[in-house]
Design goal:
Elements lengths: L2 H25 L6 H29 L15 H23 L3 H7 L5 H30 L4
Helix pairs in contact: 1-2, 1-5, 3-5
């Protein structure tokens, strides 16, 4: 598989994975106790981190012979810095949506919906996936451009 095809495949996998994890995290708000909710959210965080580390390991193994040597000063490569900035911008853009939507589950409960966060999980997951897709796609492009010719 060519590096750009692998990078795009991993970008799609990361996009789907983060969407699913975001939707599942939204579902945890319907758990009965705070302790269960925190435990479920921590488990989702660990699972998500492990899955993202696995996709990075697949990339590293596939392009090991084409990757430039690491910087002796320990500086991050430019494409990793760009990914960090893009995810920070994406998270900052999501804050107003989170603040505006905080009262929505309570309003849905008043209208008779017992577990509103389960209903909200699908649009939240789709929204996050759609918003993060350009970020992951740009990262795929940048990480293949950083390979040695």
């Amino acid at each position: 598989m060519q590096p750009i095809q692998l990078a795009r495949t991993l970008a799609v996998a990361d996009t789907v994975l983060t969407g699913v994890l975001t939707g599942l995290a939204q579902c945890t708000y319907d758990l009965p106790t705070r302790r269960r909710r925190y435990a479920a959210q921590a488990a989702l965080g660990v699972a998500g981190g492990a899955a993202l580390m696995a996709t990075d390991a697949v990339w590293a193994a596939a392009v090991r012979d084409r990757t430039p040597p690491p910087d002796p000063d320990g500086a991050l490569p430019a494409h990793e810095k760009a990914l960090l900035r893009r995810h920070l911008a994406l998270s900052l853009a999501a804050l107003p949506v989170w603040v505006a939507g905080r009262g929505l589950p309570a309003a849905m409960r008043r209208r008779g919906i017992e577990r509103p966060n389960r209903l909200l999980a699908v649009p939240v997951a789709l929204g996050w996936s759609l918003a993060s897709a350009p970020v992951e796609w740009a990262h795929a492009r940048d990480r293949t451009a950083a390979l040695l010719p």
